[in-house]
Structure formats: C-alpha cells, structure tokens
Amino acid sequence: MSALFPDAQNSLAFPVSLSEKYRPRTLAGFVGLEKQKKVLSAFAKRPCSCAWLLHGGSGLGKTSMALALAEEMRAELHLIPSQKCNLEAIESVRRMCQYAPMYGKNWHEVLVDEIDSASPAAQLSLLSKLDATDPAPMTVWVFTSNNCDKLEKRFLSRCRVMEFSNYGLRSDLAEFLAEVWKAETGKEGTLDWTRIAKDANSNVREALQALDIELLAA
Q1: 66 part of a folded domain
Q2: What global pTM score does this model have?
Q3: Residues 44 and 149 in one domain
Q4: What is the mean pLDDT of the segment spanning 32-38?
Q5: d(CA 198, CA 11)
Q6: Are strands 107-112 and 75-80 parallel, antiparallel or unpaired?
Q7: Residue 32 CA from chain centroid, whole number
Q8: Pairing state of beta strands 160-164 and 139-145?
Q9: Residues 156, 66: one domain?
Q10: Domain residues for 185?
Q11: DSSP string, 93-135
Q12: Tens of pLDDT along 122-131?
C-alpha cells in the first residue's frame, strides 16, 4: 500500500484495474468533491436515521462515497444492486434492519444503487419506510441515481438530495493521474494529463481506464 495513496489496495496478490486499485475507501480520499466530502464527513461523526440521494453522472464516485460513508459510520452494509430494487428486496432488507447491527457495528446502511431503475412498487413501498410511518431503527438509507426524472416527488421529499458533478474537477483529476502514473512506474510521466482528463469528461473511472492502456503501452 502506497504512502501517497493510503486508500489504494495492495495488488500484489492478483492484478486489478487502476479504477479498482485506487477506488477511495475513505471520504477524504476522493478526488475533488470537496462539498460532498465535507457534508458526509460531518454526518458520519453525528449520524441519524434518514435517507440520502446522491445523484449525478456515472463515474463520479457516488457508490464509492456511499461505501466509504458506511465504513466511517461503522455501519453494517446492506447492498441492493442496480436493477435488483424490487418490492421483495425492500421488504427483506427492512426486516433485517429491525434488529441490532451485527459484527460490532453501530448502524445499518442500506445502499440502493441506481434507484431510478427501481420498480414503481418498490418506490411506493419506500415512502412509509423513509418517514415516521414505518421507520427502521438506527438505519441510514443511501440511494444513488444518474438522474431524478423517474423518481416520485414524494420519494424525493423524503431524502437529503446531494448532486455530484464533474464541474471544476479537471485540474484535480489531471494532478491525480500524474501521481498514479508515478506511483505505478516510479517515474515522472510525460503524458498530457489534462487532455486525458478532458477526453474522459472529468470522469475519474474513465480516466483511470485510459491510464491502464497507457501503462500497457509504456
């Protein structure tokens, strides 16, 4: 594990992509996203039962930040993957959250990826679970979404909505790519980091995938 990248996973046991190796495991480890890091870090120190909606384009760190939040909250994680959020999944995880968290954890975190692809029945079932009608104790719901067009207004009104954007991220991403290159090769790179960040539309995951190719060509 690199001292420069304390979040980076040790890849000696098996090869992994750069996007996985350098996926942040702590809130402080994200590139840019200063407001999002500040808000969720403060929340992790004083959590309460509520729901968050993290929305914005793909590759900006919404899911990774939700996972990092669970770590910093010491929360037992319940993941409902994209395309799997149906009525049965919601009811099942709600029952699990009725009990005390396991593994020495203090909270439950229910992470629902791409809630905008959830079935209408699942969205409706969430309404009572996100307010005082049928709340799960010591539970934080975190939903990710690429856009809010398909989401019920009643659902949105029950969430703390935080937008993820790549605005202003390019220079931070270019600097990050240069640091990754040096960490991987031990040398200063001569690539145009700003161009790579621009071509990836400041999408961190896409930029790291482009860097994977450059490393193979080096």
Answers
A1: yes
A2: 0.86
A3: yes
A4: 93
A5: 28
A6: parallel
A7: 14
A8: unpaired
A9: yes
A10: 168-217
A11: HHHHTTSPPSTT-SEEEEEETTGGGS-HHHHHHHHHHTSTTSP
A12: 888 888 888 8
Spatial distance between the Cα atoms of 165 and 102, rounded to a whole number of angstroms: 34
21 domain residue, yes or no:
no
Residues 203 and 118 in one domain: no
Say if residue 183 is in the same domain as residue 117. no
- The residue type found at 40 is L
Cβ-contact 49, 140 below 8 angstroms: yes
Domain check: are 123 and 159 in the same one? yes
Q: Dihedral sign, CA of 137, 139, 143, 149?
A: positive
Residue 88 counted as domain residue: yes
The model's confidence at residue 14, banded by pLDDT at 50, 70 and 90, is: low
Supply 117's token pair. Answer: 């692809």
Residue labelled with tokens 């809130």:
27
| Opening angle at CA 83, ends 26 and 164, nearest 5 | 40
In what side-by-side order are the strands of the sheet with 107-112? 75-80, 107-112, 139-145, 50-56, 160-164
